[in-house]
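Friendly challenge for the regulars: who can give me the structure tokens for this chain first? No prize, just bragging rights.
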Amino acid sequence: MKNINAIIFDLGAVILNINYQKTIEEFKKLGVENPASLYSKKTQTNLFDQLEIGKITKDHFLQEMQKKTNNASFSQIKNAWNSMLLDLPENRIKLIGELRKKYQIYLLSNTNIIHINKFKKKIGEKKYNKFYNLFDKVYYSHIIGFRKPDKEAFFLILRNHNLNPKKVLFIDDSPQHIIGAQNIGINTHHLKSHQDITTLFPDITLPEHH
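First reply, four minutes later:
Bragging rights claimed.
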């Protein structure tokens, strides 16, 4: 880590616990045929891409999804879509707070307005604001108009903060995003499902919770 001065974190399955399978199962209950072919960790259809880069509204997305269900309501579809969002472990928040004393810290997430609204609601506005302010800057795909592994998503951060890719570490759980970052010279760590970011920085001591 001695040549690193900035770290870019992914959000889902890196900081926030998520379970793609829960959403697949909930979509199935609503009558969606083969939901894993529409959306999974490895792949997704154009509809989900468009939502994630802010090219369509949440209502347009819900209308299109509704056609794939047994006439489910918008709120049922939203609940199914949001069911993948789990908890936000406190020790990861503490780690990022400690890392910020040594490094510039950024968040780059392929996400969408429905998930972010639910995330805010789930953890509460106060905790969400505290989380958001942990980072020097937050980059959500639906706001910036690019999603990983598109190199533009990475270039945006490098340009905005005058970062040298050789001095940046990117942490993500998706192999395709890791390859996208590596292709432009960013150092990477592919976080496997059995790993936790709190074990990646043995030199960082987390404050005890009293």
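The longest strand covers residues 104-109. The CA atoms of residues 36 and 45 lie 10 Å apart. Your move, everyone else.
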